[in-house]
């Protein structure tokens, strides 16, 4: 704490000029004048009891991301279950089973339905309970709240009320939206990290009103009273309008005084604030959307199949009723022994239409086995087990944080295999907020031997070419002419590979390290380079007492990397005071460092508009310097004529750095005369103390006067440290055919640099930047003019893409949040989406959480394809909930994204395994499982219809009730569950080696209508074979040695045996991957049927249905029973076996080829063929490492080809 107070004495507001300078007469600007709706909120500070009654009663600070609560669970969960048409049908059937017209007992209809619905509701309750537990972890966080008499005590976040005064300490999250009253700094500023809100990692500076600065101690709040009148809750993160009434004065409020919930206090010991917005009213929650009820595309399509089967069910029921009417009217009167009409008038020849209507209802229930009641519950069981395997996957377990993958909902497992577009946050999702100083250019000389990730990948690919794996693709003249890829222009030294252990510093070059820079020809320029790195910044040093080294709290990761690099070069920034920076400079390793003081005269800070930062300092000799760092295009435009000595070489180096994905800045300086500085400083002071709307323009103009006539020193190249494995993951996902969009709250330059780092962007890719124009000069309808300007840019870009002839040409769309606001309007969103679809990558920057959700909705609804959103912060909740699949990054700060997600992983790189492996498997498993389910139920259900027609449409079932109950519950359920849980067309390693296999999901190859109707036709064929073969065999001949013919029970049991064998052999033929569990379930189900028959035949109940000892005495001793079963099984499965054999021979799918290669072990014996197949299984892509390396190789081959042509021309001339 003592160290915090030392830092607190620095009045940081004097260092800043644009962002946080407070004019001396700021509070004399006057209060905001607002009236009417939207500005009705009144907050009584330090008087929360005033807000316990209406009209000032506001919502609590309790938040919830659950789907249900105690009151809504039953009605909403029941609605969810009976939204499924099959469940609705079986509910109706269960109700009708209570009437005399039902062919089955009520228990046999109600019990399965109650079991299925109850199990599904229990699963929903369990998953929502987990969400509730995570919500409560946040709601029960503790905050220090003023109670009374200047005493602060701990209180759960959920119990905070509007008007409470809270004290938040360093590195803690703000529990609600607060008005900053004071901080540990004397001038009331604090540093805030808003990564959870807008994705930015650079610290924001917030400042309190000067009038509340004395409120810097607990006791000062004893008598504190004030009133805030402000805007109503709204989702805008960057605006706030309000007035602060205190001590009979009114002061205007703006966003610089507002601390938003879920942002974090950094570099500040503590702050005091008063609660303005709580819970759902807070801006971060206003940007979130309600937890949606998501259903997969397969499940929606399954409903359509149910509709088709239900229509077919009604159709055959009507046919049966018509047949029954005819029989009742013309045949029943002749059969006097049937005693018609009966007491219930179900069989009344006098009124055949009424009897036919009753029979229609009977038939609808009787043929209900066409619609599988156990389908939904089997899918639920399979999905839960699939989710368990995802959770237990050790390759998706993050060792550092101890965090496993988590399937928070299992409803969407198969959707993971059908993703078309990924919408990703940047900060904390793709990046780990760390920069590494890698290379630099000083005085026209390039330094730094370490290779970037892009260089290493290109070198690896080219070495494969040299090894002969791709020699066939090289021009013959190259090989014959001896032209080699070992040319210096593409050579990578072996020492590049090792990585330096110092965080933020991966630089390797002995010419600059250990004081060797003193021996370089331009040592004086190198000295200036190091000084600019160590002085031109706004960071604060912190001394680590354990290690003795300094760490740096900087506004951006770049700045921290520069300071670490300066320290390693021997220029250690060690202390900052009110007006000075102290640097320990070491020129030789054997000498002691010299601590030098540089007085900071002015600081012109970095903004996205300026794209540069300058500091004016006076050294110990009294010489005044202006040190500047910024974007090369900006700095080069401000160079003096005599300052361009190194411009050409530096530009060459900058282009090389950009090609390999490094972020670059140019460094320059100039010396100032004392009188020139004094004159400029007067202008600067006059501008920064000005009041009015032109203050910013005046400051910009004065800064421009100073920032010119520079001398170029050099350039830096830092590698934005992506999360481990991110480029490789993006590359693999791109090869799998997935499109990747980045939606970030970060600045455009930062987003573009990250795009280069993770290979979403690359050199040679044409960037289409859609921006808005300045409308200040427009008098009439500026909004319409702005929309027309944006639409024109979109139209021109779309036309340019259509006219492009180069097949290798790639386009990237980059758009900012302000422009996106108009692009998402109804009359522009379709052209915008069409343009975005034509581009290889899309980056949306400076977007709000609401815009992230709107973009996600546009892609989802506009393309009609599956979208996946991934993020780690509260600002990503909206898009995570809006997307078809939401993935949260756990293990990062804040759990809001995880709580709102469907799946949670610890690192972005695990998305590769989640989609390419688990997604691919789950899609195929569920698709095959559902198709098989409909097949087996059609095969079984239609035999009931055939027999009912055979028996004169009497409504009689050929099967015993117990057979029918066991069919779906036991005899065929476990094999299909094993298919859904364990089936693998290829193993996980092959899935990753052949990423294009993933496209089977987005193309829906295994659940399209062709395949669905094929399985239905197979079921129809099986039902015909089972029924008619058994009728032919058993109908008019003795089947036992003693001469007995088959009765209905014997025929039904024989038919049922045929069905069990046929459908279980069918599922065995469907499987590509067998484990002992699958063998146990498939053949165990067949064995269980015979065990059941044996036990059932011994029970007294069997006497009632004429099934006593049906196996041991009736069917078992008859050879014809066993031969008929074998014949039925073979004939039923022969067409499917012939079909899959023909398909594999004539038109094999990718996984068929891979299976045969693996089966014959050709991947071991013939590596070349295996690699060739792998290269074919890459989806053509223009983003990712592979595309970047391919582009680099094309450039290098072009150079070599050109060089060889020139050499040949010279040789021919000589």
Automatic annotation (TrEMBL):
<keyword id="KW-0547">Nucleotide-binding</keyword>
<dbReference type="Pfam" id="PF13246">
    <property type="entry name" value="Cation_ATPase"/>
</dbReference>
<dbReference type="InterPro" id="IPR023299">
    <property type="entry name" value="ATPase_P-typ_cyto_dom_N"/>
</dbReference>
<dbReference type="InterPro" id="IPR018303">
    <property type="entry name" value="ATPase_P-typ_P_site"/>
</dbReference>
<keyword id="KW-1017">Isopeptide bond</keyword>
<feature type="binding site">
    <location>
        <position position="872"/>
    </location>
    <ligand>
        <name>Mg(2+)</name>
    </ligand>
</feature>
<dbReference type="Pfam" id="PF16209">
    <property type="entry name" value="PhoLip_ATPase_N"/>
</dbReference>
<feature type="binding site">
    <location>
        <position position="852"/>
    </location>
    <ligand>
        <name>ATP</name>
    </ligand>
</feature>
<feature type="binding site">
    <location>
        <position position="746"/>
    </location>
    <ligand>
        <name>ATP</name>
    </ligand>
</feature>
<feature type="transmembrane region" description="Helical">
    <location>
        <begin position="933"/>
        <end position="956"/>
    </location>
</feature>
<feature type="transmembrane region" description="Helical">
    <location>
        <begin position="1012"/>
        <end position="1035"/>
    </location>
</feature>
<dbReference type="Pfam" id="PF16212">
    <property type="entry name" value="PhoLip_ATPase_C"/>
</dbReference>
<feature type="transmembrane region" description="Helical">
    <location>
        <begin position="962"/>
        <end position="982"/>
    </location>
</feature>
<dbReference type="InterPro" id="IPR036412">
    <property type="entry name" value="HAD-like_sf"/>
</dbReference>
<feature type="binding site">
    <location>
        <position position="606"/>
    </location>
    <ligand>
        <name>ATP</name>
    </ligand>
</feature>
<dbReference type="InterPro" id="IPR008250">
    <property type="entry name" value="ATPase_P-typ_transduc_dom_A_sf"/>
</dbReference>
<keyword id="KW-0812">Transmembrane</keyword>
<feature type="binding site">
    <location>
        <position position="425"/>
    </location>
    <ligand>
        <name>Mg(2+)</name>
    </ligand>
</feature>
<feature type="transmembrane region" description="Helical">
    <location>
        <begin position="1119"/>
        <end position="1138"/>
    </location>
</feature>
<dbReference type="InterPro" id="IPR044492">
    <property type="entry name" value="P_typ_ATPase_HD_dom"/>
</dbReference>
<feature type="binding site">
    <location>
        <position position="426"/>
    </location>
    <ligand>
        <name>ATP</name>
    </ligand>
</feature>
<feature type="binding site">
    <location>
        <position position="876"/>
    </location>
    <ligand>
        <name>ATP</name>
    </ligand>
</feature>
<dbReference type="InterPro" id="IPR032631">
    <property type="entry name" value="P-type_ATPase_N"/>
</dbReference>
<feature type="transmembrane region" description="Helical">
    <location>
        <begin position="107"/>
        <end position="126"/>
    </location>
</feature>
<feature type="binding site">
    <location>
        <position position="427"/>
    </location>
    <ligand>
        <name>Mg(2+)</name>
    </ligand>
</feature>
<keyword id="KW-0067">ATP-binding</keyword>
<feature type="binding site">
    <location>
        <position position="629"/>
    </location>
    <ligand>
        <name>ATP</name>
    </ligand>
</feature>
<feature type="binding site">
    <location>
        <position position="663"/>
    </location>
    <ligand>
        <name>ATP</name>
    </ligand>
</feature>
<dbReference type="GO" id="GO:0140326">
    <property type="term" value="F:ATPase-coupled intramembrane lipid transporter activity"/>
</dbReference>
<feature type="binding site">
    <location>
        <position position="427"/>
    </location>
    <ligand>
        <name>ATP</name>
    </ligand>
</feature>
<dbReference type="InterPro" id="IPR001757">
    <property type="entry name" value="P_typ_ATPase"/>
</dbReference>
<keyword id="KW-0832">Ubl conjugation</keyword>
<feature type="binding site">
    <location>
        <position position="876"/>
    </location>
    <ligand>
        <name>Mg(2+)</name>
    </ligand>
</feature>
<dbReference type="GO" id="GO:0005524">
    <property type="term" value="F:ATP binding"/>
</dbReference>
<dbReference type="InterPro" id="IPR006539">
    <property type="entry name" value="P-type_ATPase_IV"/>
</dbReference>
<feature type="binding site">
    <location>
        <position position="559"/>
    </location>
    <ligand>
        <name>ATP</name>
    </ligand>
</feature>
<feature type="transmembrane region" description="Helical">
    <location>
        <begin position="85"/>
        <end position="101"/>
    </location>
</feature>
<dbReference type="InterPro" id="IPR023298">
    <property type="entry name" value="ATPase_P-typ_TM_dom_sf"/>
</dbReference>
<dbReference type="GO" id="GO:0000287">
    <property type="term" value="F:magnesium ion binding"/>
</dbReference>
<feature type="binding site">
    <location>
        <position position="846"/>
    </location>
    <ligand>
        <name>ATP</name>
    </ligand>
</feature>
<dbReference type="InterPro" id="IPR023214">
    <property type="entry name" value="HAD_sf"/>
</dbReference>
<protein>
    <recommendedName>
        <fullName>Phospholipid-transporting ATPase</fullName>
        <ecNumber>7.6.2.1</ecNumber>
    </recommendedName>
</protein>
């Amino acid at each position: 704490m003592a160290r915090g107070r030392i830092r607190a004495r620095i009045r940081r507001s004097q260092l800043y000029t644009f962002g946080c300078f407070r004019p001396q007469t700021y509070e004399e600007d006057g209060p905001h004048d607002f009236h009417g709706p939207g500005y009705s909120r009144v907050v009584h500070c330090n008087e929360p009891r005033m807000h316990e009654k209406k009209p000032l009663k506001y919502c609590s600070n309790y938040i919830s991301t659950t789907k249900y609560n105690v009151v809504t669970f039953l009605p909403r969960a029941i609605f969810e279950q009976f939204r499924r048409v099959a469940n609705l049908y079986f509910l109706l059937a269960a109700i009708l089973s209570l009437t005399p017209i039902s062919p089955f007992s009520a228990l046999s209809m109600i019990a399965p339905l109650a079991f299925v619905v109850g199990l599904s509701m229990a699963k929903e309750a369990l998953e929502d309970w987990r969400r509730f537990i995570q919500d409560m972890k946040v709601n029960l966080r503790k905050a220090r709240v003023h109670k009374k008499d200047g005493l602060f005590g701990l209180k759960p976040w959920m119990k905070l009320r509007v008007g409470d005064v809270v004290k938040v300490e360093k590195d803690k999250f703000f529990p609600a939206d607060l008005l900053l009253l004071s901080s540990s700094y004397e001038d009331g500023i604090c540093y805030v990290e808003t990564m959870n809100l807008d994705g930015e990692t650079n610290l924001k500076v917030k400042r309190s009103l000067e009038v509340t600065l004395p409120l810097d101690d607990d006791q000062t709040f004893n008598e504190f009273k004030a009133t805030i009148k402000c805007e109503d809750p709204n989702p805008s993160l960057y605006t706030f309008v309000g007035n602060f009434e205190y001590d009979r004065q009114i002061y205007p409020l703006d966003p610089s005084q507002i601390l938003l919930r879920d942002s974090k206090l950094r570099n500040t010991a503590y702050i005091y604030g008063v609660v303005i917005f709580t819970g759902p009213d807070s801006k971060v929650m206003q940007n979130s959307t309600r937890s949606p009820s998501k259903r997969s595309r397969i499940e929606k399509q399954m409903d359509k199949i149910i509709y088709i089967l239900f229509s077919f069910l009604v159709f055959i029921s009507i046919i049966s009723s018509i047949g029954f009417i005819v029989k009742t009217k013309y045949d029943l009167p002749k059969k006097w022994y049937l005693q018609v009409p009966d007491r219930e008038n179900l069989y009344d020849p006098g009124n055949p239409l009424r009897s036919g209507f009753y029979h229609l209802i009977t038939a609808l229930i009787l043929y209900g086995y066409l619609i599988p009641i156990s389908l939904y519950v089997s899918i639920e069981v399979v999905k839960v087990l699939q989710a368990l395997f995802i959770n237990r996957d050790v390759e998706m377990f993050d060792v550092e944080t101890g965090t496993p993958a988590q399937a928070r909902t299992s409803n969407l497992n198969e959707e993971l295999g059908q993703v078309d577009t990924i919408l990703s946050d940047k900060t904390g999702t793709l990046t780990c907020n760390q920069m590494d100083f890698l290379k630099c250019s000083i005085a026209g000389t390039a330094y730094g031997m370490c290779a970037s990730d892009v260089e290493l990948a290109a070198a690896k690919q080219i070495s494969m070419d040299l090894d002969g794996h791709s020699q066939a693709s090289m021009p013959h003249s190259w090989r014959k002419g001896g032209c080699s890829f070992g040319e210096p222009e593409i050579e990578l030294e072996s020492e590049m590979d090792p990585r330096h252990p110092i965080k933020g510093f991966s630089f390797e070059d002995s010419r600059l390290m250990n004081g060797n820079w003193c021996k370089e020809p331009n040592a004086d320029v190198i000295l200036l380079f190091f000084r600019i790195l160590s002085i031109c910044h706004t960071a604060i040093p912190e001394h680590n007492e354990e290690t003795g080294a300094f760490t740096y709290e900087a506004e951006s990761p770049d700045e921290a990397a520069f300071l670490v690099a300066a320290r390693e070069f021997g220029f250690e920034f060690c202390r900052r005071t009110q007006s000075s920076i102290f640097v320990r400079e070491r020129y030789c390793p054997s000498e002691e460092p010299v601590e030098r003081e540089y007085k900071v005269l002015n600081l012109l800070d970095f903004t996205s508009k300026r794209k540069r930062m300058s500091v004016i300092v006076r050294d110990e000799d009294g010489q005044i310097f202006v040190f500047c760092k910024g974007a090369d295009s900006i700095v080069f435009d401000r160079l003096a004529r005599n300052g361009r000595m190194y411009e050409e070489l530096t530009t060459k180096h900058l282009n090389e750095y950009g090609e390999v994905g490094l972020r670059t800045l140019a460094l320059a300086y100039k010396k100032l005369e004392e009188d020139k500085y004094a004159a400029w400083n007067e202008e600067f002071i006059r501008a920064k103390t000005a009041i009015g709307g032109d203050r910013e323009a005046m400051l910009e103009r004065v800064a421009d006067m100073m920032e010119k006539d520079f001398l170029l020193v050099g350039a830096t190249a830092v590698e934005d440290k992506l999360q481990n494995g991110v480029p490789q993951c993006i590359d693999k996902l791109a090869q799998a055919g997935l499109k990747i969009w980045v939606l970030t709250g970060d600045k455009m330059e930062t987003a573009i640099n990250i795009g280069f780092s993770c290979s979403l962007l690359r050199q040679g890719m044409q960037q289409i930047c859609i921006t808005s124009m300045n409308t200040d000069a427009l008098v009439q309808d500026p909004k319409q003019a702005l929309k027309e300007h944006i639409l024109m840019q979109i139209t021109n870009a779309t036309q340019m893409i259509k006219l492009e002839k180069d097949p290798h040409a790639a386009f990237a769309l980059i758009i900012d949040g302000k422009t996106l606001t108009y692009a998402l309007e109804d009359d522009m969103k379709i052209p915008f989406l069409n343009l975005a679809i034509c581009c290889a990558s899309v980056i949306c920057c400076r977007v709000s959480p609401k815009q992230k959700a709107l973009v996600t909705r546009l892609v989802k609804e506009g393309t009609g394809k599956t979208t996946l959103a991934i993020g780690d912060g509260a600002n990503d909740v909206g898009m995570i909930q809006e997307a078809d699949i939401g993935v949260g990054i756990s293990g990062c700060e804040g759990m809001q994204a995880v709580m709102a997600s469907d799946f949670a992983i610890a690192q972005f790189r695990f998305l590769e395994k989640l989609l390419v492996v688990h997604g691919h498997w789950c899609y195929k498993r569920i698709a095959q499982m559902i198709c098989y389910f409909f097949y087996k139920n059609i095969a079984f259900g239609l035999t009931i219809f055939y027999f009912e027609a055979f028996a004169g449409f009497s409504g009689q079932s050929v099967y015993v009730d117990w057979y029918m109950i066991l069919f779906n519950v036991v005899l065929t359920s476990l094999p299909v569950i094993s298919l859904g849980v364990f089936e693998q067309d290829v193993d996980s390693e092959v899935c990753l080696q052949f990423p294009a296999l993933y496209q089977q999901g987005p193309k829906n190859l295994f659940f399209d209508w062709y395949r669905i109707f094929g399985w239905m036709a197979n079921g129809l064929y099986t039902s015909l074979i089972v029924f008619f073969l058994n009728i032919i065999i058993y109908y008019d001949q003795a089947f036992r040695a003693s001469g007995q013919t088959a009765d209905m029970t014997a025929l039904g049991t024989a038919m049922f045996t045929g069905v069990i064998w046929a459908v279980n052999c069918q599922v065995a033929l469907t499987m590509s991957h067998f484990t002992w569990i699958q063998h146990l379930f498939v053949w165990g189900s067949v064995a269980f049927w015979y065990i059941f028959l044996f036990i059932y035949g011994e029970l007294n109940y069997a006497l009632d249905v004429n099934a006593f000892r049906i196996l041991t005495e009736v069917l078992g001793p008859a050879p014809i029973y066993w031969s008929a079963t074998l014949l039925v099984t073979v004939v039923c499965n022969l067409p499917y076996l012939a079909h899959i054999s023909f398909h594999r021979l004539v038109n094999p799918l990718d996984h068929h080829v891979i299976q045969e290669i693996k089966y014959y072990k050709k991947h071991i014996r013939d590596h070349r063929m295996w690699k060739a197949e792998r290269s074919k299984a890459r989806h053509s892509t223009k983003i990712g490492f592979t595309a970047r390396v391919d582009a680099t190789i094309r450039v290098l081959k072009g150079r070599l080809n050109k060089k060889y042509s020139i050499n040949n021309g010279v040789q021919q001339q000589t």
